[in-house]
Structure formats: C-alpha cells, structure tokens
Amino acid sequence: MDEAVMTALVAAGAAIGGGALTGVFTLAAAKRQAAAAWAAGERQAAAAWEAGRQQAAAAWDAGQLQATAQLDVARRTLTEQTLANQRAVRRAAYVTFLGRTDSAQLALTAWQSAIGTADESPRRREYDSAMGAVGESLNVVRLEGPDPVTAAAETLRSSLAATAPGTQHPVAQTAFLDAARVALTPV
C-alpha cells in the first residue's frame, strides 16, 4: 500500500473516529443540557406550585378575615338595633306612666278641692280611676325595667296616695325622670 493510501486511510479513520468521538461528546452534552433543563423545569414548576398554594392560602385567610369582620358588623348592628328598640319601648312605657301620674295628680288635687261639696264623689271616682290607670302603666314599667326605674316609679305612685304629703310628688317625679333618663341613655 502506498503511502498516500495509507495517509488517506489514517485521515479517514481519524475523521470517522473524531466524528464518532465528537458525536459521543455532543450526545453527552445534550443529555446533560436536557437533564439540566428538566431539573430547571421541575424547580420552576415546584416554585409555581408553591406560589399558587401560598396565594390560595392567603386568599383563604383574607376571605376568613372578611367574613369574620362582616359577621362582627352584623352582630354589632343587630345589638344596636335591639338596644334602640328596647329604649323605644321603655321610652313609650315611661311616657305613658308619666302622663297617667300627671292625670292622677290633677285628679287628686280636684278631689281634695271638692271635699265637702257635691262634686266630692265624682272627683273621688275620677281619682280612683286615674290611680287604676297609674297601676296598669306601672306594671308595664315593671316589665320593661330596669330596677332603678321601677323603684322610682313605685315611689312616684306612692306619692299620689291620698295620704301622701303634697311635697313628695315633685321630688318623686324628678327621681323617676332621672332614673328614666339614665335607662334611656345609650351606653
């Protein structure tokens, strides 16, 4: 074999060997790149999953806080409405009671002024009727309370008795008004 053929065969062998070796290295590099890309993709997917999970957890927590706040507002609103309704019912009971005690006081004065006259019996009946109305409205005050107002109302009714001193009524009425104002003042 001639030297030129031998050189060509060696060159061809080297080219084939170099190509094969380059192919092996290229394949190995491609496998490493693919593995690195796969690992990066997995890390990116895991990070995206974790971010989504955290975002969902944060949204859940925010929803819970919002729901709790709305329930709290609803509870406070209902409590305020209940208290306002209670004050309105009490106010009506107190006003009715005061009106009836005023009527009874006028009836008592009229009866006492008529003692010894022909009007004494009708005026006494008017007084008794007025005191019956005071008793009825006192029962409503007792139901609505509170206790300090009830006690003041009972004292006011007692001040309207035919045997009560005349100076007792204004004092008892002022005490009732003071207790009623305290009971009607929002806390």
SSE layout and pairing:
Layout: H1 3-114, H2 120-144, H3 147-158, H4 168-184
Helix pairs in contact: 1-2, 1-4, 2-3, 3-4
Give a nutshell description of this structure.
The chain has 187 residues and is mostly helical.
Structural summary, described in words:
This protein is an all-alpha fold and 187 residues long. It has 4 helices and no strands. The longest helix has 112 residues, at 3-114. The radius of gyration is 50 Å and the shape is rod-shaped. The model has no long low-confidence stretch (mean pLDDT 90).
Whole-angstrom Rg: 50 Å
Q: Compute the average pLDDT.
A: 90
Helix segment tally: 4
Distance between the termini: 119 Å
H/E topology pattern = HHHH
Strand content: under 5%
List the keywords.
mainly alpha; rod-shaped; 187 residues
